[in-house]
Write a structure and sequence with these properties.
With 167 residues, this protein is mostly helical. The chain is built from ten helices and no strands.
Length: 167
C-alpha cells in the first residue's frame, strides 16, 4: 500500500490498518488527525510521539495483541491479521533448538507471572537465543522499569509495521 492509498482509505479501514501496526485503540484514535499524512518520516515521528502520550493502560492493551515469542499456535489462531508480520519478526524462532524453545516458554510464563503482561521485544533480526538472553536479563527488573522497556520495544515494532504497511 502506498501512503496515498492509506490516506484515502475510509476511516474504518484506516483504523483497521493502523490497529495492525499497534493494538492500542487510543493510539489509533490519536493517529487519525494526522491523516492525510504528507510523508512516511513524518508519519513515523507522529506515531512515536502519540505512542509516548498514551497511558499505561493503552500500552498494556497493545501488548495483548502480540503472540508470546515462539508461540506458533497463537500466531495462527488469535493473531491472524498480523500473523505474517509476526511470523517474519519471529522467524528465527522456527530454527531454534528444542532446549531454547522450552526455555523461552518457561521464561515467558515467569515473565508474565511477575509483570502481568507478556514479554515484548522487537524480534526482527534477533535469534531465539538472543531473545531468550534478553528475556532473562529483563526478568530481574521491577515492573516500572519493565513497562518502560516493553513500551519502547512496542514503539520499535509499531514503526517497523508502519514501514511494512507502506512498502
Amino acid at each position: 500500500m502506498t501512503l496515498h492509498e492509506l490516506n484515502i482509505l475510509p476511516k474504518d479501514q484506516l483504523k483497521a490498518e493502523l490497529f495492525k501496526c499497534c493494538g492500542s485503540t487510543n493510539w489509533v484514535e490519536k493517529m487519525l488527525p494526522f491523516f492525510p499524512a504528507d510523508d512516511m518520516v513524518e508519519l513515523i515521528n507522529d506515531a512515536e510521539e502519540q505512542w509516548y502520550e498514551c497511558s499505561e493502560a493503552d500500552w498494556l492493551e497493545a501488548f495483548t495483541h502480540h503472540p508470546k515469542i515462539g508461540d506458533v499456535e497463537s500466531l495462527k489462531k488469535k493473531f491472524a491479521a498480523t500473523a505474517q508480520w509476526a511470523s517474519g519478526e519471529q522467524g528465527a524462532v522456527a530454527e531454534a533448538p528444542q532446549q531454547v524453545l522450552e526455555a523461552l516458554s518457561k521464561g515467558n510464563n515467569d515473565y508474565e507471572q511477575k509483570f502481568g503482561f507478556i514479554f515484548i521485544v522487537c524480534a526482527t533480526g534477533k535469534s531465539a537465543a538472543e531473545m531468550l538472553a534478553l528475556l532473562e536479563a529483563r526478568l530481574p527488573n521491577n515492573r516500572e522499569e519493565e513497562i518502560r522497556i516493553a513500551m519502547d520495544e512496542q514503539n520499535k515494532i509499531t514503526q517497523l509495521r508502519l514501514q511494512k504497511l507502506l512498502s
